[in-house]
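ERR on first pass: missing label on line 2. Operator R.T. fixed the label and resubmitted. Corrected input:
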Amino acid sequence: MTGQDEAPPAPSGRRSARDERRQPTIHDVARLAKVSIGTVSKALNGNGRLSAETRARVSALARQVGFRPNHLAQSLHRGQSFTVGVISNDNFGRFAMPIMEGLEECLAEQRISVFMCNATDDPALEARHVEQLLAKRVDGLVVTGRRADRRPPLQTPLGGLPILYVFSQTDDPDALCLLPDDRGGAFMATEHLAKLGRRRIAHVTGPERFEAVRLRRDGWRAALKSAGLAATDQSCLAGAWSEAWGREALDRLFAGKRPTPDAIFCGNDQIARGIADALRERGLKAPQDVAIVGFDNWLVIAEATRPLLTTIDMNLKELGREAGRRLMAMIAGEKQSGAHRLPCSLIVRESCGARLKAR
Amino acid sequence: MTGQDEAPPAPSGRRSARDERRQPTIHDVARLAKVSIGTVSKALNGNGRLSAETRARVSALARQVGFRPNHLAQSLHRGQSFTVGVISNDNFGRFAMPIMEGLEECLAEQRISVFMCNATDDPALEARHVEQLLAKRVDGLVVTGRRADRRPPLQTPLGGLPILYVFSQTDDPDALCLLPDDRGGAFMATEHLAKLGRRRIAHVTGPERFEAVRLRRDGWRAALKSAGLAATDQSCLAGAWSEAWGREALDRLFAGKRPTPDAIFCGNDQIARGIADALRERGLKAPQDVAIVGFDNWLVIAEATRPLLTTIDMNLKELGREAGRRLMAMIAGEKQSGAHRLPCSLIVRESCGARLKAR
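pass 2 clean. output:
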């Protein structure tokens, strides 16, 4: 190859290991079959004019020597590498993981491999990753984050390269952003509590600077309104995304002389767990005295909460799969843009009281 | 390219998007600079005999048109792709992710990109991933799992390809396996409790079929012996990796008339949290009545436990970095084999009582 050498120099002593793992090439197959390279290509691709006997003989020989097509060469030829780069700002964290799982599963079915890069919210590192991925001739890029808030658009010097944001969004109106429907999920949770007969449904949530906090609060308010219930400022408490905040918020809700809630919809599962613990320590029962619904369906929390936590699942793995499907459509030339929100699901366990009712 | 076409057929309508994102090639630079391709190559690689003026002019033009070396072409030429494949059987889970983070960070510094594949413990899917990665001409493979127990060696038809197991191991004596030092970590935890003056140190742990359970128990026993303390069968309880098991085990330890423990070393953080909750619910105090040390330093558990959990950290990110360094050495031709165990660290918080002593 010609061109500027960006890659590190070859360490000495490599040759023997390299030779040992040299893969058989189309030249080896042609030599053994005593035919031309063109004939091998036709035989293996099943095209061109060739006798059935030659085709069978060449294919058998290729299998015998362990010939494997070289994707690098195919990629150069076609201008498509069948690789995709993921840039995560979630440090391989709990939101990025299920998204990656769905994305990789979807793309693997189409024999597209995924490069995983961690940009740790460092714009300079992100730019280096992008440069590296473009040099690898990826067919598309996926950006994901630890929170779904807006970020500056990914800087790429290359127009037309498909880029998709998942659990992440940007102001660029031409960008395609896939997000969970936070508002819809919150509406579903609150409506569920209202339908179970709860009348004083409080909301304890995370920091207001998160878009998700604002959307979930809107969903809670809308569901209360639609059920003919009141949302007061006192019944909505914003704090941290932690169990400790859940415990503190519960104390605040039960401190004054005003009526106490008979249900609490929580902005995440950690807050919900803190509330469940604080209720028990007050001698109150969930769901009998106060019903609880969380948000995230983070199993290590939801399944360890006493009682088992009813919660909203953002379906992040499905979000990842949808990202894979849409990215493939974009690679195929389809234009896609705008922010799309995918539905959440309600996971009913014990803390909401639905199973009490069912008895 | 010639050869068997394994990749999916090109969808129609792609050409326009493809053309739009066509990257400038060395041919474009040569045409614009009115020199040969060989001259461009010499100018950009800084080698060959060329006037300083030509070198500067060609480099400036290459920058101007946004020329980027094509790694695919370089890889074909050199027989090294500067890519590595990771096969995870942890579904992008909590053990694989910090390992990936360290590995990717280490390799990214060397401009090596990482393909991430999820094999979900399915041997057929694992084999398809390996085949796919070999076709992509990866320079090496990393295998990781959700538990460090032995697994069958990765089946690859290619001798000499560097393969490394991290948080995973295999019987093949030629394989390189990197693991946390479970026994050493358990010794450290128990020794810490003994040095703080605890005399009846129980061990509550996970299922015995896990090698980690057996190694951690050995470490606990060895530390007790070295401190002149007794390990009895009654003071070691194996169960599930859950908070519920932690609570149940605490009840068992306090059920009989025999002396109750003044410290408990737990096989993981979830068990430790269950024990801390059950102690509080019995009206007992940690660490005053019973000191607790966990294992994993899984922050969502350790930092939510009351009191904050002292625990063992397996340093999985560092394990991933070490895997990256060793894999690069293997790619460079160095032979490496055997199981290597990297040290764990003790993270002192409040549950062990060290901070009480310090006051």
